[in-house]
Amino acid sequence: MSAKARMFLKRLFDWCGLKIRRTDNEQFFDFEALLWHRMHRSKPFRFIQIGACDGKRFDPIHDFIKANSSAVEGVVVEPLPDLYAALCRTYAACQGIQPINCAIHNSAATMLLHRVRSSSLGTLPEWAIGISSFDRSHLHRLGVPDSAIEEVPVPCQTLARLIEITGFSSVELLQIDTEGYDAEIILSIDFSSFCPTVIRFEHSRNSQGMPDETYHQVIDHLHAGGYEVIPVESDAIAFQRSILETSSPPGNLRV
Protein backbone atom coordinates (compact mmCIF):
# COMPACT_ATOMS: atom_id res chain seq x y z
CA MET A 1 0.00 0.00 0.00
CA SER A 2 1.47 3.40 -0.95
CA ALA A 3 2.14 6.15 1.58
CA LYS A 4 -0.53 8.26 -0.12
CA ALA A 5 -3.08 5.47 0.19
CA ARG A 6 -2.20 4.93 3.86
CA MET A 7 -2.65 8.63 4.56
CA PHE A 8 -6.00 8.61 2.77
CA LEU A 9 -7.10 5.58 4.77
CA LYS A 10 -6.13 7.24 8.05
CA ARG A 11 -8.03 10.40 7.12
CA LEU A 12 -11.06 8.33 6.18
CA PHE A 13 -11.08 6.45 9.48
CA ASP A 14 -10.43 9.61 11.53
CA TRP A 15 -13.29 11.33 9.70
CA CYS A 16 -15.62 8.38 10.42
CA GLY A 17 -14.72 8.45 14.10
CA LEU A 18 -12.86 5.13 13.92
CA LYS A 19 -9.45 4.18 15.28
CA ILE A 20 -6.76 2.31 13.39
CA ARG A 21 -4.98 -0.43 15.29
CA ARG A 22 -1.99 -2.55 14.35
CA THR A 23 -2.70 -5.99 12.92
CA ASP A 24 -0.61 -8.80 11.48
CA ASN A 25 -2.59 -8.43 8.26
CA GLU A 26 -1.18 -5.35 6.54
CA GLN A 27 -4.13 -5.29 4.16
CA PHE A 28 -6.79 -5.16 6.88
CA PHE A 29 -9.72 -2.91 6.03
CA ASP A 30 -13.24 -2.89 7.44
CA PHE A 31 -15.26 -2.64 4.23
CA GLU A 32 -18.59 -3.20 5.97
CA ALA A 33 -17.91 -0.27 8.31
CA LEU A 34 -17.58 1.94 5.25
CA LEU A 35 -20.91 0.66 3.90
CA TRP A 36 -22.60 1.44 7.21
CA HIS A 37 -21.13 4.90 7.09
CA ARG A 38 -22.44 5.52 3.57
CA MET A 39 -25.84 4.23 4.69
CA HIS A 40 -25.93 7.14 7.14
CA ARG A 41 -25.13 9.58 4.34
CA SER A 42 -27.52 8.27 1.69
CA LYS A 43 -30.97 6.71 2.08
CA PRO A 44 -31.91 4.73 0.19
CA PHE A 45 -28.45 3.21 -0.24
CA ARG A 46 -28.23 2.35 -3.96
CA PHE A 47 -25.83 -0.16 -5.46
CA ILE A 48 -25.04 -2.26 -8.53
CA GLN A 49 -23.47 -5.70 -8.14
CA ILE A 50 -21.99 -7.37 -11.21
CA GLY A 51 -21.31 -11.08 -10.78
CA ALA A 52 -23.70 -11.70 -7.90
CA CYS A 53 -23.63 -15.53 -8.07
CA ASP A 54 -26.47 -16.74 -5.77
CA GLY A 55 -26.35 -13.61 -3.60
CA LYS A 56 -24.90 -15.52 -0.64
CA ARG A 57 -21.72 -17.48 -1.23
CA PHE A 58 -18.47 -15.52 -1.32
CA ASP A 59 -20.51 -12.30 -1.30
CA PRO A 60 -18.92 -9.35 0.57
CA ILE A 61 -22.15 -7.32 0.67
CA HIS A 62 -24.83 -9.97 1.37
CA ASP A 63 -24.97 -9.49 5.14
CA PHE A 64 -25.09 -5.71 4.83
CA ILE A 65 -27.87 -5.81 2.21
CA LYS A 66 -30.00 -8.28 4.18
CA ALA A 67 -29.55 -6.29 7.40
CA ASN A 68 -30.76 -3.15 5.62
CA SER A 69 -33.27 -4.67 3.21
CA SER A 70 -35.85 -1.94 3.77
CA ALA A 71 -33.36 0.87 3.17
CA VAL A 72 -31.46 -0.33 0.10
CA GLU A 73 -32.13 -0.33 -3.62
CA GLY A 74 -29.94 -2.43 -5.83
CA VAL A 75 -29.37 -4.16 -9.14
CA VAL A 76 -27.80 -7.64 -8.85
CA VAL A 77 -26.50 -9.13 -12.08
CA GLU A 78 -25.88 -12.84 -12.70
CA PRO A 79 -25.66 -14.49 -16.16
CA LEU A 80 -25.92 -18.23 -15.37
CA PRO A 81 -29.56 -19.42 -15.29
CA ASP A 82 -29.31 -21.69 -12.22
CA LEU A 83 -27.40 -19.15 -10.14
CA TYR A 84 -29.75 -16.41 -11.30
CA ALA A 85 -32.72 -18.47 -10.06
CA ALA A 86 -30.99 -18.87 -6.68
CA LEU A 87 -30.24 -15.13 -6.64
CA CYS A 88 -33.93 -14.37 -7.17
CA ARG A 89 -34.80 -16.61 -4.23
CA THR A 90 -32.19 -14.93 -2.03
CA TYR A 91 -33.71 -11.49 -2.55
CA ALA A 92 -37.35 -12.48 -3.07
CA ALA A 93 -38.43 -10.60 0.06
CA CYS A 94 -36.37 -7.48 -0.75
CA GLN A 95 -38.60 -5.23 -2.84
CA GLY A 96 -35.80 -2.81 -3.65
CA ILE A 97 -33.52 -5.42 -5.25
CA GLN A 98 -33.73 -6.02 -9.02
CA PRO A 99 -32.10 -9.27 -10.26
CA ILE A 100 -30.92 -9.09 -13.88
CA ASN A 101 -30.07 -12.22 -15.88
CA CYS A 102 -27.14 -11.20 -18.09
CA ALA A 103 -23.39 -10.70 -18.20
CA ILE A 104 -21.72 -7.33 -18.60
CA HIS A 105 -19.56 -7.06 -21.73
CA ASN A 106 -18.33 -3.99 -23.56
CA SER A 107 -19.29 -5.11 -27.07
CA ALA A 108 -20.85 -8.58 -27.42
CA ALA A 109 -24.57 -9.39 -27.27
CA THR A 110 -23.83 -13.04 -26.41
CA MET A 111 -20.73 -14.68 -24.94
CA LEU A 112 -19.64 -18.14 -23.90
CA LEU A 113 -19.18 -18.36 -20.16
CA HIS A 114 -16.86 -21.13 -18.96
CA ARG A 115 -17.97 -22.77 -15.74
CA VAL A 116 -17.34 -25.91 -13.71
CA ARG A 117 -19.73 -28.71 -14.64
CA SER A 118 -22.24 -29.48 -11.90
CA SER A 119 -21.13 -33.13 -11.98
CA SER A 120 -17.56 -32.02 -11.13
CA LEU A 121 -18.34 -29.64 -8.29
CA GLY A 122 -18.14 -32.39 -5.67
CA THR A 123 -14.49 -33.04 -6.52
CA LEU A 124 -13.40 -29.39 -6.24
CA PRO A 125 -13.41 -26.77 -3.45
CA GLU A 126 -16.69 -24.96 -2.76
CA TRP A 127 -15.44 -21.77 -4.40
CA ALA A 128 -15.43 -23.56 -7.77
CA ILE A 129 -19.12 -22.71 -8.18
CA GLY A 130 -18.27 -19.02 -8.33
CA ILE A 131 -15.39 -18.88 -10.83
CA SER A 132 -17.26 -18.76 -14.15
CA SER A 133 -15.34 -16.67 -16.67
CA PHE A 134 -15.28 -15.56 -20.30
CA ASP A 135 -11.67 -16.79 -20.25
CA ARG A 136 -11.31 -20.59 -20.14
CA SER A 137 -7.68 -20.27 -19.06
CA HIS A 138 -8.84 -18.47 -15.91
CA LEU A 139 -10.32 -21.76 -14.67
CA HIS A 140 -7.17 -23.63 -15.69
CA ARG A 141 -5.06 -21.24 -13.58
CA LEU A 142 -7.26 -22.10 -10.61
CA GLY A 143 -6.61 -25.80 -11.05
CA VAL A 144 -9.79 -26.84 -12.86
CA PRO A 145 -9.11 -29.58 -15.46
CA ASP A 146 -10.43 -29.05 -18.95
CA SER A 147 -12.70 -32.11 -18.61
CA ALA A 148 -14.55 -30.38 -15.74
CA ILE A 149 -15.36 -27.24 -17.75
CA GLU A 150 -18.49 -26.59 -19.75
CA GLU A 151 -19.46 -23.62 -21.95
CA VAL A 152 -22.76 -21.80 -21.47
CA PRO A 153 -23.94 -19.08 -23.88
CA VAL A 154 -25.20 -16.07 -21.93
CA PRO A 155 -26.83 -12.76 -22.96
CA CYS A 156 -24.70 -9.66 -22.49
CA GLN A 157 -25.14 -5.92 -22.29
CA THR A 158 -22.86 -3.02 -21.55
CA LEU A 159 -22.71 -1.37 -18.15
CA ALA A 160 -23.99 1.83 -19.75
CA ARG A 161 -27.03 -0.02 -21.09
CA LEU A 162 -27.66 -1.64 -17.70
CA ILE A 163 -27.64 1.79 -16.08
CA GLU A 164 -29.99 3.12 -18.75
CA ILE A 165 -32.62 0.38 -18.39
CA THR A 166 -32.53 0.28 -14.58
CA GLY A 167 -32.22 4.00 -13.94
CA PHE A 168 -29.32 3.46 -11.51
CA SER A 169 -27.17 6.32 -12.75
CA SER A 170 -26.26 7.36 -9.21
CA VAL A 171 -25.09 4.70 -6.74
CA GLU A 172 -23.14 4.52 -3.53
CA LEU A 173 -21.47 1.22 -4.47
CA LEU A 174 -20.43 -0.58 -7.62
CA GLN A 175 -19.41 -4.13 -6.67
CA ILE A 176 -17.66 -6.13 -9.43
CA ASP A 177 -16.54 -9.76 -9.41
CA THR A 178 -16.42 -11.18 -12.93
CA GLU A 179 -13.46 -13.56 -12.72
CA GLY A 180 -11.20 -11.77 -15.16
CA TYR A 181 -13.33 -9.07 -16.80
CA ASP A 182 -13.30 -6.47 -13.99
CA ALA A 183 -10.65 -4.29 -15.65
CA GLU A 184 -12.54 -4.01 -18.93
CA ILE A 185 -15.69 -2.92 -17.12
CA ILE A 186 -13.92 -0.25 -15.06
CA LEU A 187 -11.97 1.06 -18.04
CA SER A 188 -15.27 1.47 -19.93
CA ILE A 189 -16.74 3.84 -17.31
CA ASP A 190 -17.12 7.50 -18.16
CA PHE A 191 -16.87 9.01 -14.69
CA SER A 192 -18.37 12.28 -15.90
CA SER A 193 -21.74 10.52 -16.23
CA PHE A 194 -21.46 7.59 -13.79
CA CYS A 195 -19.43 8.05 -10.63
CA PRO A 196 -20.16 5.57 -7.81
CA THR A 197 -19.02 6.70 -4.39
CA VAL A 198 -17.24 3.37 -3.82
CA ILE A 199 -16.07 0.76 -6.34
CA ARG A 200 -14.92 -2.66 -5.21
CA PHE A 201 -13.35 -4.98 -7.78
CA GLU A 202 -11.26 -8.14 -7.95
CA HIS A 203 -7.68 -8.06 -9.22
CA SER A 204 -6.26 -11.37 -7.81
CA ARG A 205 -2.71 -10.28 -8.62
CA ASN A 206 -1.50 -12.66 -5.91
CA SER A 207 -2.80 -15.61 -7.94
CA GLN A 208 -1.89 -14.62 -11.50
CA GLY A 209 -5.12 -12.72 -12.02
CA MET A 210 -5.06 -9.21 -13.46
CA PRO A 211 -1.71 -8.49 -15.19
CA ASP A 212 0.33 -5.71 -13.60
CA GLU A 213 0.12 -3.50 -16.69
CA THR A 214 -3.68 -3.80 -16.76
CA TYR A 215 -3.93 -3.20 -13.01
CA HIS A 216 -1.97 0.03 -13.32
CA GLN A 217 -4.15 1.14 -16.22
CA VAL A 218 -7.21 0.60 -14.01
CA ILE A 219 -5.62 2.51 -11.11
CA ASP A 220 -4.66 5.39 -13.41
CA HIS A 221 -8.21 5.52 -14.78
CA LEU A 222 -9.65 5.59 -11.27
CA HIS A 223 -7.20 8.28 -10.14
CA ALA A 224 -8.15 10.39 -13.15
CA GLY A 225 -11.80 9.91 -12.19
CA GLY A 226 -11.23 11.32 -8.71
CA TYR A 227 -10.67 8.11 -6.72
CA GLU A 228 -8.10 6.82 -4.29
CA VAL A 229 -7.57 3.05 -4.21
CA ILE A 230 -6.91 0.72 -1.26
CA PRO A 231 -5.83 -2.89 -2.05
CA VAL A 232 -7.47 -5.52 0.17
CA GLU A 233 -6.13 -9.05 -0.41
CA SER A 234 -7.38 -10.10 -3.88
CA ASP A 235 -9.68 -7.08 -4.22
CA ALA A 236 -9.28 -3.32 -4.34
CA ILE A 237 -11.60 -0.63 -2.98
CA ALA A 238 -11.76 2.76 -4.69
CA PHE A 239 -13.26 5.83 -2.99
CA GLN A 240 -14.24 9.18 -4.38
CA ARG A 241 -11.85 11.73 -2.89
CA SER A 242 -14.78 14.09 -2.52
CA ILE A 243 -16.35 12.08 0.31
CA LEU A 244 -13.73 13.55 2.64
CA GLU A 245 -14.16 17.06 1.32
CA THR A 246 -17.88 17.63 0.92
CA SER A 247 -19.46 15.82 3.86
CA SER A 248 -19.23 16.03 7.62
CA PRO A 249 -18.60 12.89 9.70
CA PRO A 250 -21.66 11.08 11.09
CA GLY A 251 -22.54 11.44 14.74
CA ASN A 252 -22.97 7.71 15.20
CA LEU A 253 -21.38 5.12 12.91
CA ARG A 254 -22.70 1.57 13.29
CA VAL A 255 -20.02 -1.06 12.71
From TrEMBL:
Can you name the source organism? Planctopirus hydrillae
**Residue ranges constituting the Methyltransferase FkbM domain according to the UniProt record:** 49-228
Q: Which domain of life is it from?
A: Bacteria
Q: What is the protein's name according to its record?
A: Methyltransferase FkbM domain-containing protein
